[in-house]
Amino acid sequence: MKRLWLAAAVGIIAGFSLLPFLWFVLTSWKSATEISAIPPVIWASFHWEHYDAALAKHGLLRYIANSAVVAGATTVISLAIASLAAYALARFQLRWGRHYLLLLLALSMFPQIAIAGPVWRLLSTLGWLNTYQGIVAAYIALTLPFAIWVLTTFFKELPYDIEEAALIDGCSRWQVLRWIVFPVAAPGIFTAAILVFIYAWNEFFFALIILTYPAVQTLPVGIALFPGEYTMPWGEIAAASTIATLPLVMLTLIFQRRIVQGLSAGAVKG
Amino acid sequence: MRNGRDPIWRFLLPSCVFVLLFSLYPIVESFRLSFYRLILTLPWLGQRFVGWENYRDLATDPVALNSFVTSLVFVAVTTPAEVLLGLGMALVLNESFRGRGWLRAAVLVPWAIPTVVASQMWRFIFNDRYGLFNFVLFGDATERYWAPLAEPGLALVAIMIADIWKTTSFAALIILAGLQGIPAQLYEAASIDGATAWQKFRHITLPLVKPALLLALLFRTIDALKVFDLVFVMTQGGPADTTNVLQFYGYKKIFAEGMVGYGSAIAVVVFLLSLILSLIYIRLLGARLLAKERSL
User: Fold this and answer.
1) Model-level pTM?
2) How many CA atoms, within 13 angstroms, populate the side-chain half-sphere of residue A129?
3) How far, in Å, CA of B229 to CA of A64, rounded?
4) CB B169 to CB A172 under 8 A?
5) Which of A160, A166, A116 lies closest to A141 in space, CA to CA?
6) Around Cβ B10, how many Cβ atoms within 10 Å?
7) If you count residue pairs, one on A and one on B, with CB atoms under 8 Å apart, how many are there?
8) DSSP characters over B16-71
9) Using one digit for the tens of pLDDT, what is the confidence trace for B113-162?
């Protein structure tokens, strides 16, 4: 009896989580008449025309490239900066270290609109609107609090004896970091990197206000502002959405355990 | 510990620079601008100090008040729904069965999908002519089909459904982490004493998972206050401003209408609202952090 209830619950949860998106993915393979058919056609006839149109007509490749550059650069730089800070916060007994962590926590909760105007003006002054470095700088600042929190938690769990031995043997802090801490902490850093990458790949609000030229826009902006003249080109939107989501679903399926770990480290453990 | 050779500030400086330039300074600047009249479309007016005028205007602006109420209703409906559904999901995910890893991965999918993609997806499902929503409700009777996103009462509900779908899994994961921290011996002892499943849930699970529930609730509350992507893609704040949440209204004022001063006043209000919530959260977490350090 209990197994039956459990099976039903599992089915409902899986359906709730997956079916709406699967429906959208199927839509990307349907012909225009199948999309607007009533009753709906469930199985697509597997046309690739919407993918062709999205790639050729709407320059989806450019959005993908922009997203890859922006999310990639954000991940690398943010993690490098966060690793240094988190190491210091985890290893030195700083009087204000805890306050810095709490400040970061508070910052990560601020609504984007509270900083959007001045960030825009600052980037405008620097001449960094519509540039990679402009959006990446904003994303670094936005992802640092989370990255520092997760990494501080990971670093605190690493044993200190090896580092101490190396320090006594005359290694500098940098050498200890480079040769001992980073190799051991690689799994933790990797987990944080996945989460930062997903954030930067998905972020929309700042991308919308900072990137106004199609040549530099990222995927979420491209998909949100998908041009439709008379009717919405649902097939093409679904195709672009599928392409934008594919890397994330792969990451999620492969690194599911790590992602769950990282999220709860950032949220619960503290 | 020797710190003399490698000063700590060198480790922290890069992060401080970014935080200062792109988080702290902008907030202070938003506060300052909220006391000025600065309209980008009327540059000849310049930047004039007007004191509390923007806030007085805000208090009498019916659109702003409506937007404030919309945001609060959105938060009040979605966050309890997400936490309750998340608790249900977490309870199932905490059971041991074959394929649990797969279910956990499946649950993560809505969380991983870009919000913009989820927004377009729900916009398609709620389409007034061939959306799945209408077919499920009315079948072939196309003359009865609704246009949820163009219907003042329904558009907000549609956005809430999309938000609940997108973020319940995050709540579930936080609650799951809480459930996994409950020692199994407690349940074993209760079983020996002949407790029913409901009694175990009521007297062991619920009290012990309460901190995680609270955490999920606060996290979701703070996040729901920032809802933007769904509104931008699905309704643009319409119909008749019924989905014009605070973050979207502020965006429209600053970036579409160039009313930087007035928009900053909205930004400050949203900021103060979430600051109050974060303070509650930090008190909770900070207390735990302190307790942890003392126990070391």
Assistant:
1) 0.92
2) 14
3) 19
4) no
5) A116
6) 12
7) 295
8) HHHHIIIIIHHHHHHHHHTTEE-BTT-GGG--EE-TTHHHHHHHH-HHHHHHHHHH
9) 999 999 999 999 999 888 899 998 888 888 888 889 999 989 999 999 99
- Regarding whether B60 and B4 lie in a shared domain, the answer is no
Supply the pLDDT for residue B139.
Answer: 86
A111 touches chain B (CB under 8 A): yes
Instruction: Say if CB A224 and CB B118 are below 8 A apart.
Output: no
Q: How many domains would you assign to chain A?
A: 2
Cα–Cα distance measured from residue B90 to residue B212, given in angstroms and rounded to the nearest whole number: 11
By residue range, what is the domain housing residue A254? Answer: 58-269
Q: What are the residue ranges of helices labelled H in chain A?
A: 2-28, 32-35, 49-56, 60-91, 97-109, 113-126, 132-157, 161-168, 173-176, 182-202, 205-210, 219-224, 234-254, 256-264
What gap in Å lies between CA A228 and CA B189, rounded to an integer?
Answer: 63
Q: Smallest Cβ distance to B89: which of A13, A87, A94?
A: A13
ipTM over 0.85: yes
Alpha-carbon distances, residue B159 vs A202, B30, B88, B155 (angstroms): 18, 28, 22, 6
CB contact under 8 A, B140 and A237: no
DSSP B111-154: HHS-HHHHHHHHHHHT-TTT-HHHHHHHTT-GGG---GGGSHHH
Q: Which helix (H) or strand (E) holds A128?
A: none
3-state secondary structure of B183: coil
pLDDT (tens digit per residue) in A93-126: 788 888 898 888 888 888 999 999 999 999 999 9
A248 and A190 within one domain: yes
Check if A255 contacts B (Cβ < 8 Å). no
Domain assignment present for A53: no
Residue A200 tokens, joined: 């930067």
Does residue A158 sit in the same domain as residue A70? yes
Residue A40 contacts B, CB cutoff 8 Å: yes
Classify residue A266 by its DSSP letter.
I
Residues A193 and A235 in one domain: yes
Alpha-carbon dihedral sign for residues A50, A54, A55, A56: positive
For the record, the structure tokens of A136 come out as: 């990446």
3-class secondary-structure state, position B259: strand
Tokens of B91: 């309870």
Give the tokens for residue B138. Answer: 């009315």
Distance CA B85, CA A148 (A): 30
Please check whether residue A52 lies inside any domain of the structure.
no
Exposed e or buried b per residue across A185-207, where buried means at least 16 C-beta atoms within 10 angstroms of its C-beta: beebbebbbbbbbbbbbbbbbbb
> How far from each other are the two terminal CA atoms of chain B, in whole angstroms?
18
Q: How far apart are the first and last CA of chain A?
A: 40
